[in-house]
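Notes from the pairing session

We agreed to fold both candidates in a single pass and log them together. This is the raw record for the first candidate, unedited. Please don't reformat it; downstream parsing expects exactly this layout.

Candidate A
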Amino acid sequence: MVEVPDSLPARMFLLAYDARKQKMAKGGSQLGYVLRAAALTELYLDGRLGEERRRPVPGTPGDDPYGLLAQIAASRPRSWQHWIRKDSRAMVATIRDELVRGGWIRVRRRRAWGLFPCHQVTVRDPRVVKELWGGASAALRGRPVAHVNSYDAAAVALAAAGELKTVLPGADRRRHKRRIEELTARSGPAAPAVRKVIRAQNAAAAG
């Protein structure tokens, strides 16, 4: 079996990579929303984050690798959507740098169209992306929901909410709608919240 990163945000970053085109399929704020939601989901699944009145609250003390628990503890109660939007672009850089340090990806700085600075990401071993995709695919089509690995279930929930077509093309999201809802229910409040954030962003862009 191919080794994959331990953290859910790192896994979601790699799942947003299009191995066929050898480039990131998602970037900017939308990927940041997915990564923030992944970090919140990881904390929630581990019991380090709870929920009161539909808002996240600190749970059992533990590691806070991305500083989200400290942010939430220092703030008045705010919605899941608030914490998904906050520092979303910075989260992309944080996870990208983490994956570079871990030897999972290479990053080359360049200028798009010769003007705009951007980062060209290359996954060092495409089998890692394939392994992660296989876990998500099995969660979508395989064993009963209660027996699915919690990170694979969360990957499907977050990919659906974040419109990651590398994992779930639109046709698959429609075909497996019921199963996705069941996996989302297992994964906590962050995935539904990221869907609301992205829908609001799309509506604002269209209006």
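Candidate B (folded immediately after A)
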Amino acid sequence: MNFVELQIGLMMKDKSDRQAELGREIHAISCSSKPLGSWTAQRGIQECREACGGHGYLAMNRLGDLRNDNDPNCTYEGDNNVLLQQTSNYLLGWLHHKQRGQGRIESPLESVNFLEDFSSILQSHFTPASMEECLDSAVPLAAYKWLVCFLLKQSEEKLAQEKARAQGDFEARNNSQVYYCRSLAIVFIEHTVLQRFHDLVHDEDTPADLRPVLLRLAALYGLWSLSNHMAILYQGGYFCGKAPADLIQTAILHLCAVLKDDAVALVDVIAPPDFILHSPIGKADGELYKNLWATVMQGDRVLERAPWWKEFCSDKPAVGSLCAKL
């Protein structure tokens, strides 16, 4: 809907500052959401493949095809690591805007508005004292706001250091990517996704009967994503001691157990139909082994002997005549 709003403005030849800023913001969000989507899919398909054991790499189940089809998504339409530079440049531009006293940090979609409280956010720390408190998506959301601010500050300082070494702009930006600008763009889009998820769950228009499961799912997504940035949270001092990591890990395991019975329904919400997925173990009826056997039986010449059976029987080696070469 945000993109539709932008397109309507373009068709109506809107030349306002808001329209221009909306275009910049959508560009920054899309340049980081594409890497997040393709990398999450890549990781998800691999975990599903491994979770299915031997069935996971059986060709008829098509998990290998899904993985292979998704892999180019990480490169075409813009390589993920290159695209992320667009998002970090956008965020650094807002910080410089604030530092030069050119006004508040505000954007049409409000994805960067929290940066107006940059200094106070950096002074915050992890406060939950129990696992139950961590079951609210507001907990990882607050941590993500701190992460974005911390990495924005670190990236700006790193970029300044590289430029001070009389390096060109390209070299300075290139040397500021790993651990800095790249990480900044990733945590920003993860924060944006979680913020929208959190807002949706608490929206009055969200059906009341769906809200409980969405609350748990939002918390699980937030905590699981946040767990990938534990090192930075400790490095910057947002986490202190053993308790924060323990609480988050315990909360993730608890939410996985609670959501287990809703997993099939949640997947079915976005699952493609059987004829698109075309996988025996992925059919909606859940008849895994029945579907596997039916697919095997539909194969070409599956009830016939192998074409080489006579050759093997006529020249059968004597028992004990074959020795290992190693």
